[in-house]
Amino acid sequence: MSPTTQALLFALLGAVLGGGVVLAWRISESQTHPTKAVPPGTLPPGVAAVLSVLRSSALVVDASDDVLKASAPAIAMGLVRERRITVRELEDLVQQVRRDGQIRETEVVMQRAPGVPPRYVTARVAPLSSTLVLALVEDRTRERRVESIRRDFVANVSHELKTP
User: Per residue in 104-154, pLDDT tens?
Assistant: First the structure.
């Protein structure tokens, strides 16, 4: 694996771990300091600022499944159109989290236009308040492609070593 690839993978790993730490801290804070009810259609203070600095795609969804705030990467990835989530699996995950308040994480394959390879993402969804849900989505397409190339390389080298 080249040093550039390793550096990119470690940077991505650091970003994911950092996001996980922030999310864990946020959940811990919400459990120790119960949140007040947020009026419909408004975001708690600071949420918009946090979403604007995240590298990952982020959405805040209200009780009627309207997207109140979406980060620029979420819009660029095509997760939102006209204040609605465009990926059915993500919308289902948001509804499940709203129903039982449990944090959920899943892998989603986003089908795109014909002839365009699918996008592989990891979605992590958590409640922000009694009515708001936060969805963080990380694009894993590049990691999958790198892993596939690595696997093919190892298989080819192994074959060459066995058959001189």
Answer: 999 998 887 788 888 899 999 999 888 899 999 999 888 878 887 888 788
Q: What is the 3-state secondary structure (H, E, C) of 31-75?
A: HHCCCCCCCCCCCCCCHHHHHHHCCCEEEEECCCCCEEEECHHHH
Indicate the number of domains in the chain: 1
User: Which residue blocks in the chain are alpha helix, DSSP H?
Assistant: 3-32, 47-53, 72-77, 88-100, 141-162
Q: 113: domain CATH number?
A: 3.30.450.20
Query: CA-CA distance, 146 to 139, in Å (whole number)?
Result: 13
In angstroms, the CA 97 to CA 135 distance is 10
Helices 3-32 + 141-162 axis angle, to 10 = 140
Range of the domain at 151: 3-162
Give the tens place of pLDDT for each residue, 22-80: 777 777 776 665 544 445 557 777 788 888 888 889 999 998 989 999 998 998 888 99
